[in-house]
Amino acid sequence: MNTNLYIARRIFSAKENRDNLSHRIVNIALFGIVLGLVVLILSIAIVTGYKTEVGRKVIGFGSHLQIVNLDSNQSFETSPINQEQPFLEELKAIDGIRHVQVFATKPGIIRTDEEIHGVVLKGIGPDFDWSFFQENKVAGEPFHVQDTVRSNKVWISKQMADLLKLKTGDDLTMFFINQMEAVPRQRKFELAGIYRTSLEEFDRMFVLVDINHIRRLNNWKNDDVSGFEILVDDFKNISEQEKSVHQLLLRNTSSDSPVLQVISIMEKYRHIFDWLSLLDMNVWVILVLMILVAGFNMVSSLLVIILERTQMIGILKAMGARNWSIRKVFLYFSVMLILKALFWGNLLGIGLCLIQEYTHVLKLDPTSYYLEYVPVNLTILHIVLLNVGTIVITVLMLLLPSYFITKVSPEKTIRFE
Asked: Do residues 226 and 215 lie in contact, with contact meaning Cβ atoms separated by under 8 Å?
């Protein structure tokens, strides 16, 4: 039998001193650990959830990776490439790549009787994955793109529809300016659908349209596109997938074809992902502060318990117990207190996250935060690391105050009593 653990359990379960000052101090320390763990769970769940949701929406507009002409600049007027590339089958066969689709972009202007608004047309083909826009659909249905017949239907955002006072089924007129053409081109479209992602920067800009319109407006061939969009299975592996695609392009480069490049969504919208990365610093600051607070609370509690149990320490020393053996008694006792606090902290923290996940009771201003409610992202790994880290760091902080046990003299404590 582990004698040290047995004594620690007896101290932990003792009921005779519940009204003592030490018991109240210990309860305050436990409350501090519970509150700290709740704050940590909520902080990590909210920050990771926020980064995941915003990143997912940005990816919905531009995919994980894009293959474009090296001559294309940062504007939406791109240099075309042929959609019949020799590497396509090999590209789709790369492990981790979920979907490949063509796209094209073209700046334009929407004009109604009362308003005018600059937009970017995103041309989509028959292979377009509608899942993201279906999730964020407000009204309407997807339109079908064919290789031979152009569809005049478009999708715009709710922000755009409210600004231009449009609803599904309405007609809208767009104007396009090409180099070497003095007169803008005009096209009439039918509003087939409205989406809302709350990403203001993107909602006020992108219009989904049949890619054949962009080919016609740019005087391209029937098989020309701006590039290919690539969706991968796991965002965490985007760097590896980018390297694989880059190597594939190098192997298929020829002297008589345009030089192609692969661009990741993190590079294309670096300002957004850099901003999201800054949120990690906030989590680390909160993490360090909360664990330090929990540690110092336990240090003060342990010192009070040691002072209260001075007679017991003296008796144990008189019976031949070594200093480290007695220190382990109080360390075991401290771990029991920490585990009790972690139980309630996990219960409250995870419970609050689940309430928010299923009720969305905490709302956000979409114009400022890009989301309509506070997102949460709970993972077992985060919970385990938080609990293990709290226990390990707190116990390490308790090693120093437990050293005061070595200063207790058995003859003085027993004589005093």
From this structure: no
